[in-house]
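Example 3.2
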Amino acid sequence: MRNYLLRRLAQAVVVVFGVIVLTFVVARVVPGDPAVAYAGPHATPQALAQVRHEFGLDEPALQQLGDYLKGTLTGDWGTALHTHRPVLDDLGNVIPPTLELVGFAMLLALVVGIPLGMIAARRGGASDAGIRLGTMLSVSAPVFLLALGLQYIFATKLSWFPVAGEYDPKLDYTHPLTVYTHMTVIDALVGGNFAIFGSALAHLILPAIAVAAYPTGVIAQMTRASLIEQLGEDHVRMARGLGYSERQIVRRLALRPALNPVVSVTALMFAYALVNTFLVESIFNWPGLGSYATASIQALDTPAIIGVTLFVAIVYVIATLVVDVVQAWLDPRVSLS
C-alpha cells in the first residue's frame, strides 16, 4: 500500500508538471498580448513595457517557465491580469461556490441514480424501459437547454424557486452572513443564519439539478449494467439455489462489487464538472470557477488560465487516487500492489 501510494504520488508530480508546461506553451502560442490585457487597450507603449518587465514577459520563454514553476512550488501562482489580484486569492473565492454546487449535484446524482439503476436491473419490463428512456434523455439533453428550461418553468412561470444568484441579497441588510468557507449554505449553517440558509438552499436546487442530470443518467445506466452482470455470476446462482432471497443476494453479494465502476466514473465526473459548469453558472449567475475560467480565457489571462488548469489537474490526480483506494475497499479482488 505504501509503495503504491508513493508510486502514484510520483506519477501525479509528472502529470501536473506536464500539464503546467503544456498549458504554458499553448498560452504563449495563442495570439494576443497579456500586457494589453492587464494595462488596457489605451495604455501607452511605456506603460506596456513596464507591465511586461513587472511580470517578466520580456524574459525568454524558458526563464518565464522556470520562474512560474518556482513560484508554483512556493505558493506564488502569479497575478491575474483581468482582476489584478493574486491568482490564488481569486481561486480561493471562486472554488468554494463551485465545490458547493458540484458537490450537491453529485450527491443528488448518487441518491437518485443508484436506486434507479437497481430498480431497472432487478425488475425489468416497463420500469426498466422507462428508466432507460429517462436516463438517455438526461444524458443527451444539452445542459444549457435544461438549465434554461428549469429556470423558465420553475422560476419564471411557477415562481417555485429563485431565478438566479446564491441567496436573496436583501438578507444582507437584515441577516448579514459571516463568511467562513465562501460556501454560502455551510457558512449560514455554521453561523446559525437560518434565513440565508433557507434562501441559499432554494437558490441551489435548480442549478444543481441541471448539473446533476448528466451524471444521474450515467450512474443509473452503469449501476444497472454492472448489477445485471453481478447477478449472473456463478456464486450468485448458487446462492439462489440455496434459497437466499433476491434482497439478500443484492445486498450481500452483488451490490458492493457492482458499485466499483460507479465510484470510478463518479469521481471523474466530479472533477470534470468543476470547470465545465460555466454555462450553468452563467445562466444562474453563480460566481464559481467556470465563470472565472471563461473570463480568464476571454481576457487571455495566462496566469489565471494556468492556475485553473493546475487546480483541475490536481483534482483529477487526487480523484483517481481516491477511486483506486475505494475500489480496493469495495472489492477485495482489486489489488493496490
